[in-house]
Amino acid sequence: MNIKYIFSLVVMLGLFSLTHAQTIQNNQELTPEIEKEQAEQEAKKDKSEVKEGKLYLAPIPILVSNPAFGFMYGGAASGSIFLGDPSTTKMSNAMITAAHTSKKQTLFTLKSTVYTNENNWMLQGDYRLFFSSQPTYGLGTGSGSNTLTPGVSPFESEDELGDEEPMEFDLIRFYQTALYQVKPSFYLGIGAHYDRYSNINDLALDKENGNYTHHYTYSMKHGFDPTGYTIAGVSANAIYDTRDNIANPYTGRFANIQYKYNAEFLGSDQSSSTLWLEYRDYFSLSDEVPRNLIAVWTYANLTTSGTLPYMALPSVGWDQMGRSGRAFAQGRWRGDDLFYAEAEYRFRLPILAKNPDLFGGVVFANASSASANDANVDLFDSWALGAGVGLRIQIQKATRTNFGIDYGVGTNGAKALYLNLTEYF
């Protein structure tokens, strides 16, 4: 038999076999079983890929113990969305909470950072409605911060409460800023800010027996009504933000400068101004596991002119997201000026082989310093230190949303347990 003929026959048989196999494969793709399998694969793929305009919700119940609020219960939800192509638009995120506490406090918050299409605009919001109570502790860090009162304070202990003076108050807060992207990742803008503290009741105040609280003494000395006051102002803002994800960054950095002027003609009880300086950075420790990193956060909140009312003074736990000062009660460190720094080691815990990203852990440490002009306490004279550990559970892979459980300990025996959605910074 002719060799060329045999070779041609083999080639023809091979082509027929390939064609027949492709035909069988194509027929299989049309079967319901194959279509179902492909649909499941596409669904799995969609879960790990974000889409423009899709709202990613992560609701959780609130059930936590906190030194400022006691036992807290309610609900919280984190919502994330891309308002443009995810390849060119950053993720927008909002956190809403509604909670009641064992100390008969009712708290509502809505905090958000929104990026419009192509990141042209950044909108930041901080809205709060508190029917609340909270201990106050005097001003400044260090032993010199308890010399303000002219009488005798009934709370002069050295226990973990640290000179606690209980107070009841209501708060309405409206903060909104709008910033335009003038260069890639660099924004300039303005803001409007309003705080109204009302129905303030100093529970430790007993003037008849000469027991004066720090809040009452400060308010009387500086001409504020100790039962309520208003702070209303406008701000100029500059932000540089290259974070790849605002809820849980792996890379990038964030810098924020805000100058705020609180004016009497806008409704403030007294005119004043403040300067906010903030920086965050993220340092990768592994190319293969991007969530293994060191995160750092530092800010300074400075009173640059005039006098602020007591509860509006710079204080830990009163930043936009209420994240500073883990281990301490909100407002534990307060003063005319405040400096705060924190570092956190974040890492994956590959407990489950099929889902190694489900669990993670953190180790954190922070330091706070507050001044008190009336008590001759300067910024950086002394420090309050905190540290702790935490567990992370990934509840939404597409947006990197984690549910966090943290426990912190700090100066003078302070300790606290926290439950939270998204990373702290």
Structure in words:
This protein is 12% helix and 46% strand. The relative contact order is 0.12. It has a 16-stranded antiparallel β-sheet with strand order 1-2-3-4-5-6-7-8-9-10-11-12-13-14-15-16, with no helix packed on it. The protein is mostly beta strands and 425 residues long. Mean pLDDT is 84; it is low at 1-32, 38-47 and 146-162. The protein starts with a helix and ends with a strand. The longest helix is centred in the first third of the chain and has 27 residues, at 3-29. It is built from 3 helices and 16 strands.
Could you name the CATH topology of the largest domain?
A: Porin
Whole-number tally of structural domains = 2
Round the mean pLDDT to the nearest integer and report it.
Answer: 84
The fraction of residues assigned to DSSP E strands is over 45%
Structural class: mainly beta
Integer-rounded radius of gyration = 28 Å
CATH superfamily of the largest domain: membrane protein fhac: a member of the omp85/tpsb transporter family
CATH hierarchy, class of the largest domain: Mainly Beta
General form: globular
By DSSP (H or I, 4+ residues per run), the number of helices equals 3
Known CATH architecture of the largest domain = Beta Barrel
